[in-house]
Amino acid sequence: MTHVPLHRSLIFRLLMTSVTIAIIAVVATSWLAAQSTSRAIRQEIGQTLSDDKSVYDELLTYAATHRDWSGVQPLIADRASALGRRITLMTENRRLIVDSTSGPSLELARPSATVDPLQVDLVLTGRTERIDPRIVGPYQLTPKEQQTMRRQLDESLECVRGYGSEAIVTAGPHARPRLAVTRAGVVPYACPLSPDVARSERAPIEALRTLIASCANDPDVTVTPDLTVTVLDPVKGAPIPDRTERAAACLDNARYAQLKPYVAPPVLLFVTDPADPTAAPASPFSRTNIVRTGATTAVVLVLAVLVTVVVGGRLVRPLRALAEAARRPADHQRVPVTGRDEIGYLAAALNELAEHRERSEELRQAMVDDVAHELRNPLTNIRNWLEAAQDGLATIDGPVLTLLHDETVQLQHIVDDLRDLAAADAGNLRMHPEPLHLDDAIEQVVEAHTPSATAAGVSLTTSFSGDPVVVADPVRLRQLVGNLLSNAIRHSHPGGTVSVNASAGAGRMTIAVADTGPGIAAGDVQRVFDRFWRADESRTRSTGGSGLGLPIARKIAEAHGGDITVDSTPGAGATFTVTLTFEPMPVRRHP
């Protein structure tokens, strides 16, 4: 059996294909499910954070514009109803201020955020300033001052645009309006971006400056309405860096102290599930997300099945071709060899079988034709003579009887040869080996063929090496040598010589029959053992034989565990050499 390397084995390929598809399907499903779940979690958490942020922003606005939480109940109730959540406010020591609905205690719950306009959660809001700029506190402007500031800002906006720039009105600290340049052409130094200090702002700004000066222990501190803190050199009028930096570090603490009485106190904000305050804010495995994950898994499964079907179809296609070819053996159909695996070797074996069957069919047909031809001639002669005698056109006398007898003998000879070949082909060629003297057996054959050699003008010679005793079937051995001898005599010219040389030793005997005939062409050497083949197609049966002698001789040699080889030189004759094996026997000694 042909050995198939492991990496080319069909089982290995099927296993690797299945494992690969399974791995790809699992990895793809896991990746897609993870991506889908992560996206769902991000969406759900993002939505929760968005809800928390919206509540936080609204409460931060309330705290920045109110001194206490006494009026926050309507706002809490409205946001809780809109979000479907429980919203609770508690003091920093966990004393309840307001609750949107009754429910489990929040003593151990973690707050969503701390609402303090003086300590804004920068992560939750995305801002850069700790103190909420919407706190007005003592910086409240009168309507007239607000109107004056708007007029000044309009004039500044026209000035900025005159320099090819654009600006918008924004709210600075304490909700004080100012301009912010959005598209600059020439930097508008001549255009004030902040209004002049209003009368209502002077006292709180001075109070803030006093707090900063006390903190920094520096009486030369100056503060602008936009909360720019500097310490100027009294001689040069330029900022003093180290003193300015120390004073600026006190700004937040000073503002905290100044604005604290004007805002609501810090509170803990709880945004929880109405039934379970310790539950996660939202579940990522909502019905929509579960359906999405299931659909993703189903798509991967369908793709895996399709890939399996396609790959399986490619693997099975050669097997279908093999099955189709095996179903119609009479067509001798060839199948393509697609690889060097089991299927490829099976395809090659099937092609060889088809070729062998085709060649056997051709040989069988040729043999039938040859047998019919060989039998037709003697049967035709016998029939013609019998019909002539029956019609009174010929007399059955001695010569006619001899002719009819010769034709009958020829028919019997052909039938016997065909029977021997059929038995040899079926492995039923009967052999009866026994000890015999090789030279005696060959002498008997030579004596039997001496008359035919003499009639053909051919001389026979023999040569023996010793007097060995061999084990062989004496009848079959004489038949083998006789066939070779008849063939040699038939192909030798008058005056030629046929020699038989025999030797034996070490369990092996060699018999060589050589003639001095015309020899065999190089292209015909391989065909001399074909049945019914003759080198000269024009030769008649009387001169060319039946064409079965050499094939029968080879079959007998093979039955003895040997073979026949031929060596020929055109124009110098041919030599047929028989090599047989046998069990060695003691050599006969002559007295």
In the sheet with the most strands, the strands line up as 10-12-13-15-14
Please write the string of helix (H) and strand (E) elements. Answer: HHEEEHHEEHEEHHEHHHEHEEHEEHHEE
CATH overall fold name of the largest domain: Heat Shock Protein 90
* Gyration radius over CA: 60 Å
Summarize model confidence as the mean pLDDT. 79
Q: Major sheet: size, sense and barrel closure?
A: 5 strands, mixed
Number of helices: 14
Spell out the CATH superfamily of the largest domain: Histidine kinase-like ATPase, C-terminal domain
CATH architecture of the largest domain: 2-Layer Sandwich
Distance between the termini: 57 Å
Number of strands: 15
The low-confidence runs, each spanning 5 or more residues with pLDDT under 50, are 537-544, 587-591
3D architecture notes:
The protein has 4 domains: about 5-125 and about 265-290, no CATH class; about 135-260, no CATH class; about 340-425, Signal transduction histidine kinase, dimerisation/phosphotransfer (DHp) domain (Helix Hairpins, Orthogonal Bundle); about 435-580, Heat Shock Protein 90, CATH 3.30.565.10. It is of the alpha+beta class. It has 14 helices and 15 strands. α9 (about 340-390) runs antiparallel to α10 and α10 packs across α14. The radius of gyration is 60 Å and the shape is rod-shaped. The longest helix is centred in the N-terminal third of the chain and has 56 residues, at about 10-65.
